[in-house]
Design a protein that fits this description.
Blueprint: H1 23-36, H2 49-56, H3 60-72, E1 77-79, E2 83-85, H4 92-96, H5 99-107, H6 117-124, H7 147-159, H8 163-167, H9 175-188, E3 198-201, H10 204-215, E4 221-226, H11 230-238, E5 242-249, E6 252-253, H12 255-261, E7 267-270, H13 284-297, E8 300-304, E9 329-334, E10 346-349, H14 352-365, H15 371-382, H16 385-407, E11 415-416, E12 425-430, H17 436-445, E13 464-469, H18 475-490
Parallel strand pairs: 4-5, 4-7, 7-8, 8-9
Antiparallel strand pairs: 1-2, 3-10, 5-6, 9-10, 11-12, 12-13
Length: 492
Amino acid sequence: MAKQARDLPLPALTLDARSATPLHRQIYFEIRGAILDGRLRPGARLPASRALARDLSISRNTVTTAFDQLAAEGYIEARTGAGSFVPAHLPKDQIAGMPGSARRQADRKIAGLSPSRRAGRLMSMAGRPTSRLPFSPGLPEVDLFPFKEWARLLGRHWRRPALEDLTGAAPGGDPRLCAAVADYLATARAVFCRPEQVMITAGSRQALDLAARVLIDPGDPVWIEEPGYWPTAAVLGAAGARLVPVPVDEEGLSIKDGLADAPEPRLICISPSHQYPLGVTMSLGRRLALLDAARKVGSFVLEDDYDSEYRYAGRPLAALQGLDQGGHVIYLGTFSKVMFPSVRLSYMVVPDHLLDAFLKVRTLIDAHPSSIAQAALADFIEEGHLAGHIRRMRPLYAERQAALIDALQVVGDRLSLTPAEAGMHLVGKLGSAEDDRAIAKAADRLGVQAPALSSYFQDRPSASGLVLGYAGVDGATIKRTAATLVRAIESV
């Protein structure tokens, strides 16, 4: 049976009985402006004239006169027995010349009503939008996620929600979820913490933003990896940090270079288990040297452990946080890579001496993510669904990595791919004479996402390559998309 259309509420109509403009003309102008401004969208049904007249306490004839004028000019269309609707398509040339459009253009040019300088910095650092094209880095396989179990757990909490789930969670997060995360991290990542130290956030960027607010003041020197994850630089730069790009070599972040450029960093941002984008694993010697440097100069360390669950040779490496004896490390992890991106749940492990500051600042900017989603995720972890899903994805992702390498062997003289022991993407190395940004643009035009490695550098790039995600792409698509990428490479 067809669904019945429902009236959409009109934006508030402001009528002035003392105005020289007749009421029917006022209604006409108000509705026309709402259509031109997009507040009334194509296909929206207007209230019945009788109902609108009653709501406005005016004569129905006044409303029908306004509707007749709008219909005559093409702004609404009357359908017998159905009502009045905004047309699905309005002529663009007609809209462009209307007063409402002119007002919108003028509004953008009012002197003195521009965004703040801080907003300008944020806008300049906003970076690239999220892509869903094949080979997009960081996208997991979502078709094989156990949505049936996830839906069952969400339904369990929506059908009989606890009072605390409806009235708001603690700023640190649902206590059951915090405890589940603490147990999971102790087993899988050798992270040592109490449940009270776990904070649930709405994504890793919110965690980064919260850490920036708590830990740094404008002008503070902050080490970031070079090349590195661009949102880290964007969030910290927008907070006023003085970014210090530190080279990454085969052992990870170069402590020597960092100390030479900024000997007393306030914050050190690293992804030691699987550096993004290069995929390097920081050696034990470097890890200990980093913690020693942080202890000597009083630095904080932000450890981003974004996809360490996916390791294909041996067990995942222990986190840096587990080696920290001085309360310097703030540990970040996310469920976006092991579940699906729009789950919008991540977590931080905060040292005891910083916990009060993090919790109080958190209450000012965002109370907590969805309480129901947190409760369902606690069940999802406790019932073993998360661990089971990760176990199923590991061999699949390893298989897809091998398929990607095999599919791109035909351009081995220009693009070099080496198997990696972990992660969800590979970096295809290009020769120094290759223009990776031109190749990335050519690939994008053909419907393939292959970000240029040089775009991840803050300073002058020292390497050229393509960052290729394989986790969310099935074997047949990998083969087909690889052939398209080959065409893009050969076209440059």
